[in-house]
Amino acid sequence: MIEEILLLCDPLLEAELTDVLHAANPDLTVSVIHNRADLAARCAVALHKTRLVSFGSDVIVPAAVLEALDCGAYNFHPGPPSYPGRFPSTFFIEDGGRLFGSTVHEMAAQVDSGPINAVDRFEVPADLHCVDLNLLSFHSLLALFKKLVPHLAVDEAPLARTDAVWSGRTTTQRDFDALCRLPSDVDAEAFQRRLRAV
Fold first, then answer.
1. Can you give the pTM of this predicted structure?
2. pLDDT > 90? residue 79
3. What count of other Cβ atoms lies within 10 Å of the Cβ of residue 196?
4. Which residues, 6+ apart, have CB-to-CB distance to 179 below 8 Å?
C-alpha cells in the first residue's frame, strides 16, 4: 500500500486535494510541495512507498527525483494531449479550437511526454475567454483526480495506460511572452482572439 503522496499543487488547492486523498486512504501521509526547492529537500531523504502527484503545477521535476520514486509520478495536465507544455488554453484559443480537455500522464524527464493514463475532452463554446476555459479545465482535472485517487492513494501498481499519444508543439513561457506582443498591423478579429487567449 502507498504510504506517502508528494503533492505538487497551488497552495489554494492544498486543502481540497488533501481531503480527497485522505478520504481514499486515511493513513496516507500527504506532503504538500509548492516549489522545486521544497521538492529537493523532501527527496534528499529516503523515499519508501512514495508516489508524486502534480496537479497543474509548473514545477519541473528533475529526472533524478523521478527515478527515486518507487511508486511513480503522475501529472494532471490542464489541457488535452494535443496541447503539451505551458498555457495550453491560451494556445488553444489562439488556434481557434473547439474540443479541449485535460490529461493525466506518467511524468518523464521531458515535460509532457510520458505515457498517458487518462484523457477527458469537452466542447468549448465559441468566443470563450481563457479565464473561463481554465475554469472548465480545472473542473475536468478535478473530476479525473477524484476518479483516479482511489488507485493513486492506495495501490502501489502503476495506473493503466491508454492509447492516447502526445501531439503538437510543447509550448513554453517564451512562446506565451511572444504571443503577448502584437504586430503593428493586427486586424480587429485577430486582436479580439488574442485578447481572449491571454
1. 0.94
2. yes
3. 18
4. 90, 91, 94, 194, 197, 198
